[in-house]
């Protein structure tokens, strides 16, 4: 009799889990969380249910709850890449980047081919103001995955933050070799040359950006900057463009 009951319970748990997955994929996170909880009540050792529940709470911006359940998932299932990766993301979203680092490192140890985990590790180090480490990680990504444009983006953005404009322009130029229509790179190079006082070069890249994205939110700021350069108006020390 007990064996039959267990079979019924397991079947019910699977049904709740499958329904929760479908709801989560439909972005119905509250409803999905309720079904994951029902699945967990039936089977408290199902790491996938805890993972799904944690992801739901992450999307509901309840990060403390998300971390709690993702941590359980990581303990229930050995080498659970998804649990460690999501834990890292939740720590970042909780403004605890230094807490994210160990989870991204563990995720990378489990699956070193996942570029998104390596990128997030770089971001976490950057947010902890460990800039040299972040730059090293972004460069390693570029070396190992030369077509992974996000690594170039993050490296160039950090270099600009550090006022290393020549280096940033070189990284952005590498993006254009991969994709000549990547409009963000033209704006970024324009800013770098502008900061370096190379206004004729800045104008050329600003104009190329405007050709590609004439109606973007950034376009108006670039047009204003072009007018200032044209009439030799002094540049503000901290030139910035609309995001």
Please render the helix and strand layout as text:
Elements: H1 2-25, H2 29-42, H3 47-59, H4 63-76, H5 81-93, H6 97-110, H7 115-127, H8 131-144, H9 149-161, H10 165-178, H11 183-195, H12 199-212, H13 219-230
Helix pairs in contact: 1-2, 2-3, 3-4, 3-5, 4-5, 5-6, 5-7, 6-7, 7-8, 8-9, 9-10, 10-11, 11-12, 12-13
Describe this structure in words.
- It is a single chain.
- The chain folds into three domains: 1-76, Tetratricopeptide repeat domain (Serine Threonine Protein Phosphatase 5, Tetratricopeptide repeat, Alpha Horseshoe); 78-145, Serine Threonine Protein Phosphatase 5, Tetratricopeptide repeat, CATH 1.25.40; 156-243, Tetratricopeptide repeat domain (Serine Threonine Protein Phosphatase 5, Tetratricopeptide repeat).
- 76% of the residues lie in helices and 0% in strands.
- The chain has 13 helices and no strands.
- It has helices spanning 2-25, 29-42, 47-59, 63-76, 81-93, 97-110, 115-127, 131-144, 149-161, 165-178, 183-195, 199-212, 219-230.
- The protein is elongated, with a radius of gyration of 24 Å.
- The termini are far apart.
- The model is unreliable at 1-8 (pLDDT under 50).
């Amino acid at each position: 009799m007990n064996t039959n009951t267990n079979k019924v319970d397991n079947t019910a748990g699977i049904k709740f889990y499958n329904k929760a997955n479908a709801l989560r994929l439909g972005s119905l996170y509250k409803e999905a969380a309720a079904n994951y909880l029902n699945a967990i009540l039936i089977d408290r050792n199902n790491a996938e249910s805890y993972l799904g529940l944690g992801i739901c709470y992450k999307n509901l911006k309840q990060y403390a709850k998300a971390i709690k359940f993702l941590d359980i998932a990581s303990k229930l299932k050995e080498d659970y890449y998804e649990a460690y990766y999501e834990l890292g993301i939740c720590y970042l979203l909780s403004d605890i980047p230094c807490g994210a680092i160990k989870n991204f490192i563990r995720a990378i140890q489990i699956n070193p081919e996942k570029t998104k985990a390596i990128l997030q590790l770089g971001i976490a180090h950057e947010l902890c103001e460990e800039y040299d480490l972040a730059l090293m990680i972004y460069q390693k990504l570029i070396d190992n995955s030369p077509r992974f444009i996000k690594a170039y983006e993050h490296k160039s953005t950090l270099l600009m933050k550090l006022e290393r404009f020549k280096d940033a322009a070189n990284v952005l130029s590498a993006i254009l070799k991969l994709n000549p229509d990547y409009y963000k790179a033209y704006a970024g190079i324009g800013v770098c040359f502008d900061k370096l006082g190379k206004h004729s070069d800045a104008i050329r890249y600003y104009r190329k950006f405007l050709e590609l994205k004439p109606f973007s939110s950034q376009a108006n700021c670039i047009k204003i900057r072009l007018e200032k350069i044209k009439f030799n108006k002094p540049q503000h020390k901290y030139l910035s463009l609309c995001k």
